[in-house]
Design goal:
single chain, alpha/beta, Aminopeptidase, Hyaluronidase domain-like, 2 domains, 10-stranded mixed sheet, two-stranded antiparallel sheet, 13 helices, 16% strand, binds zinc ion
Length: 411
C-alpha cells in the first residue's frame, strides 16, 4: 500500500506500459459459481465496483479481502480473482468471505494509483465525495474478524506486510514464512519509517495519522475489525510470483481463522519459537557478534531502543538457533520499549508477549546477559500495560523500564 507516501517517478523504467482490461475482470467475476455471489456496490465513471460474497450463510468467521484500491497494483486484483476462481467449497464452510477484487476500476483501467478524481482513496477517508471511500464506508457498517488488503510497493525489494491487531494472535511471521518460497521477503530493519522484523511491521497508527490524515487503514481498523493485514508485494518481481505470494498469505489467514488459532487462549507457537531448555548451549560468538551485542546493550541502556534493535539484528542475521531466537527476543524487548515510548499499546503488548515466550527457555545468564531480570521485567511491564489498557498507556510506570546487566567476556 505504501502506507503513506506517493512516490513520484519511483516506478522502474523497464516496466512495460500496460492497459488493464477491466472487461476481463468483469467477465471472470460473472463466470464464478456458487458459493460465490456477485453484487454491484456502485458504478464509477461507467465502471461497476463489484463485491463477491462467498458462503453468505456462514456465520462463524467473517473476512473481507480488498484489492485494487491503487489502480497500478494489478497483482492484488489478480490474486483476488484467482482465489475466487479456485475456491474450494469444502475447505472453509464456516467462513463468510467478502471480496472486493477491484475497488478502483478507473485507476485499474488507466494504470494509475488514483481514482477518476485524481484522489488516492486510501488516504481520503474523511472525504464524502470520493465514491471508492463511500464503498468502504458502506462495507464497514459490518464488523469483520479479519480484513486483508492487497497492495504492491514499487520500491520494495521483497514482500512485506503491516499487521494491525488487538486481542488476537499475530500471523505476520507465519505469513512471511509461507510466502518466502514464492517471493523474497524484505528483510530490512526499517520499512517506510517503521520498525520491521522479517518483513512484518506493526504500524504506529498515531504516526500514520499525523503523516497522512485520516487514512482508510487507520479508520477501518478503528471501526470494523481487530485484525487488519495489509500485504505489499514487490512490483519489480514477475506478476506470477506476486500473485502466488498474495495467495499464500491469504491462505495463512483463512486457515488460522477456520481453526482455533484466532483465539488467544489457544495460542500455539511456531516450532522454533519455544526451545527445549536442554537444547540451549552457549555458542561461540565471533568478535563481530560480541561487538554488536555490546553496542546494542549500550544503546538500549541509553534509551535508544530503535538503534539497539538495529545492532542486534546484525547478529540475528548471522546466527542460527538457539542464538537467533535469543537475539530475536532482545529485538522484541527493544521494540516493546520503543512502542512504549510512542504510546502504541498493541505493539507494546505483542512484543512483550513474544519476547517473554522466547526467553522462557533460556537460562538466567546467557552470553553475558543477565536474562533473569529481563524475564521478570517483561512480566511486570506486560501486567502494567494490560492493567492500564490502550487509553492510559501514557501513565505507564517508567520505574519498571529496565537497564540490561551485561558482562562481556574478557577479550
Ligand atoms: Zn497500494
Amino acid at each position: 500500500m505504501v502506507m503513506c507516501s506517493r512516490r513520484l517517478g519511483s516506478r522502474p523504467s523497464v516496466c512495460v506500459s500496460r492497459v488493464n482490461d477491466y472487461d476481463q475482470v468483469v467477465s471472470r467475476l460473472k463466470r464464478l459459481d456458487a458459493p460465490c455471489h456477485l453484487k454491484t456496490l456502485d458504478t464509477i465513471a461507467g465502471h461497476p465496483i463489484y463485491a463477491v460474497v462467498v458462503n453468505p450463510d456462514a456465520d462463524r468467521v467473517k473476512i473481507w479481502v480488498n484489492a485494487g484500491t491503487h489502480g497500478d497494483e494489478p497483482a492484488g486484483v489478480e490474486a483476488a480473482l484467482r482465489m475466487l476462481e479456485e475456491w474450494d467449497r469444502e475447505l472453509y464452510p464456516a467462513t463468510q468471505l467478502l471480496v472486493t477484487p477491484c475497488l478502483n476500476p478507473y485507476g485499474y483501467v488507466h494504470d494509475q494509483r488514483e481514482n477518476a478524481q485524481g484522489v488516492d482513496a486510501n488516504w481520503a477517508f474523511k472525504r464524502d465525495d470520493v465514491p471508492e471511500v463511500g464503498v468502504v464506508k458502506q462495507i464497514i457498517q459490518e464488523r469483520f474478524d479479519a480484513i486483508i488488503d492487497l497492495h504492491e510497493d514499487w520500491e520494495s525489494d521483497g514482500y512485506y506486510l503491516y499487521e494491525q491487531i488487538r486481542d488476537r494472535n499475530a500471523l505476520g511471521p507465519e505469513i512471511t514464512e509461507r510466502v518466502s518460497p514464492h517471493c523474497p521477503i524484505n528483510g530490512r530493519p526499517e520499512i517506510e519509517g517503521e520498525i520491521a522484523l522479517g518483513g512484518v511491521i506493526y504500524p504506529d497508527l498515531e504516526l500514520q495519522k499525523r503523516k497522512c490524515g485520516k487514512g482508510v487503514p487507520v479508520e477501518v481498523f478503528k471501526r470494523a475489525t481487530n485484525h487488519q493485514i495489509t500485504l505489499e508485494s514487490p512490483s519489480g518481481f514477475p506478476i506470477d510470483a506476486r500473485v502466488e505470494a498474495h495467495l499464500k498469505a491469504i491462505d495463512v489467514v483463512l486457515e488460522a481463522y477456520a481453526s482455533e488459532r484466532r483465539d488467544l487462549s489457544h495460542a500455539r507457537l511456531k516450532p522454533g519459537y519455544v526451545l527445549e531448555p536442554e537444547s540451549i548451549t552457549e555458542p561461540e560468538l565471533t568478535d563481530e557478534d560480541w561487538k554488536d551485542l555490546s553496542e546494542g546493550i549500550r544503546l538500549f541502556n541509553a534509551g535508544a531502543y530503535w538503534e539497539s534493535h538495529e545492532a542486534w539484528e546484525l547478529v540475528w542475521r548471522r546466527r542460527n538457533e538457539p542464538t537467533r531466537v535469543f537475539f530475536q527476543a532482545l529485538i522484541q524487548f527493544a521494540a516493546a520499549y520503543h512502542q512504549l515510548d510512542r504510546g502504541v499499546y498493541h505493539g507494546v503488548v505483542k512484543h512483550m508477549r513474544n519476547a517473554s515466550t522466547k526467553l522462557a527457555s533460556f537460562p538466567d545468564r546467557f552470553l553475558g546477559v543477565e536474562v533473569g531480570p529481563v524475564k521478570s521485567s517483561l512480566e511486570l511491564c506486560l501486567d502494567e500495560a494490560l492493567r492500564l489498557g490502550e487509553g492510559k498507556l501514557s501513565t505507564f510506570d517508567r520505574r519498571l523500564v529496565l537497564r540490561i546487566d551485561f558482562n562481556a567476556p574478557e577479550p
